Amino acid sequence: MGKSTHFSGQPLYSQVINLLDRSKILQISQQHDGERYVKSFNCWSHLVVMLYAVIMRFDSLREISTSMLAEARKLVH
């Protein structure tokens, strides 16, 4: 992995996302037909939301959706 690992001053969530290779994840998903019926919410978006939910320790889909709506303008990943 040729990505930089100097993350001083960045939030934990941003650090985790920066370590992931978006193109490789999408490529693997397409190889296994993970994107077959996808219109807009692809595997990358799903992974980003699920990592956010784990880091924030959410217990329900309602918590995830409420937080995503509140933080939508801050998330540019």
UniProtKB/TrEMBL annotation:
Pfam families: DUF4372. InterPro entries: DUF4372 (IPR025399). It comes from the Bacteria. Residues 9-77 form the DUF4372 domain. This is DUF4372 domain-containing protein. It comes from Bacteroides ovatus.
